[in-house]
Amino acid sequence: MERYEIVKDIGTGNFGVARLVRDKFTKELFAVKFIERGQKIAEHVRREIMNHRSLKHPNIVRFKEVLLTPTHLAIVMEYAEGGELFERIHSAGRFSEDEARYFFQQLISGVSYCHSMHICHRDLKLENTLLDGSTAPRVKICDFGHSKSVLHSQPKSAVGTPAYIAPEVLSKSNYDGKISDVWSCGVTLYVMIVGSYPFEDPEEPINFKKTIERILNVHYSIPDFIRVSKECRHLLSLIFVANPEKRITIPEIESHPWFVKNLPIELMEKVGSWQCKDANNPSQSVEEVLSLIQQARNPSEEAPNAAGRPLMGSKSMDL
């Protein structure tokens, strides 16, 4: 970490602490996720790093490198100074349909690329959707802690955030992670337009059991006082389908009339065009990254919370 100087803490979770750092030579800002060495460096951490490392797309937070400190494994990545999309909606209450479409188009572009690389995210939500600091903000998908490569097997464990989770994740022993990602994208779109979660009981929004029941029964509605076009309602109805085999797919979303309206030119490019190596971000070799992860499994000899203040849990969970 000698190359970086710490600027401030920017977040905490059950993983550890995240900090904003500055490259001493280039002055570029990065976000660094510190994970305590030892038992916390489990298989899901290796999976998160290797999956994130393989993704290079303008709508995905850029992975830079992995470093090892005496007490922590440090994951260095792009800093999205615009903060969470959740915070933007929380401030606005809800978005206009055009603004929601602008962000949704970018979200789908990033998810489509992940799927083309055989990776399902499994925890897509507003808190894991960041924005850069530009005047026309660009969506940046982050946090691949629950992600899974589907090259060899389909997901089996029920993970994610309750308000966003698809019914088949709750009710099946294995499921198609790509199709469950579609459901989570639909929840994100709904929240942007309505300003509340589709499957929470309005009278008991924190009742987890009722939320699950409403998800399994696909019980949602759009309040009468919110004006939503027929095309948008149609798209949501194709996403919120209990049977994953009948749910709309990402490629089908990308050709839906509501989605293609005012589609930015850069999102019309083919997926393959994003897969070239970033010349300004030479990746560590797979062997080097795996070696650092393996070394991080050895506990440190120093105080366990040397990277920051006491840690707090996050909203994502194994269900």
From TrEMBL:
ATP binds at K33. It holds the Pfam family Pkinase. It comes from the Eukaryota. Residues 296-319 are annotated as: Disordered. Residues 4-259 form the Protein kinase domain. Its EC number is 2.7.11.1. Keywords: ATP-binding, Kinase, Nucleotide-binding, Serine/threonine-protein kinase, Transferase. It catalyses: L-seryl-[protein] + ATP = O-phospho-L-seryl-[protein] + ADP + H(+); L-threonyl-[protein] + ATP = O-phospho-L-threonyl-[protein] + ADP + H(+). It is an enzyme of class 2 (transferase). Belongs to the protein kinase superfamily. This is non-specific serine/threonine protein kinase. It comes from Prunus mume. The gene is LOC103319562.
